[in-house]
User: Fold this.
Amino acid sequence: MNGPDSRRRIAAEEARRRRAQSNDPLAPLRRPEWLAEARRKAIHLAFIVLPLELLFEVLPWPRTRGEFRVLFLGLTVVAITIDVLRIHERNVRTIFRRFFGELIREHERLSLLGSTYLLLAALIAIEVFPQPVAAVALGFTVLGDAMSALVGRAWGRHRFFRKSWEGAAGCLVACLVWAACVTTASGLPWSVTLTGAVVATFIEALPIPLDDNLGITLAAGYTMKLMAG
Assistant:
């Protein structure tokens, strides 16, 4: 007898919960899918140590351009080796699924991980750009890509291509903040780093087949290199 009444009460409670969430701007940050994205991007954000070390050289090693090249080459080779084993060896794949299953995107299950592309981007950047340009471009990649994903996942409502305007705004703000923090230390003109921030945001938003970690780093880096002369 109480079946329909019970269902109505449940529906009413669900409606009240949704209204409460709509009035709480932080509610999206508690969704399971956003928390999973945050865990993925926490690893991505940890790579900010690479551009910081390129700029400030806090550690005793590496210091020279050649030493950075050796470091990035070694890390890239290790990352690619692990990816190849993960893709082709069942035991390695099982271990990855057990410990990092939710952190691996669907398209990464049979391809290189985003972290591997980021290391490859760092290797290419130190090879073809002046060290300050490489550092600033990598910072755009680390921070801009992460903020685009986190903001877009939480509050993205207005879509274009496969991204959102809100995510693009998050990317731009992150890139501008990075530029503001490192322009003086890099020795680059403000016009160069600010243009790099805009280019990084534009590339991140485009649906190009190239991985964002490579696309942002190369586009922003080449733009700044050409402008800086």
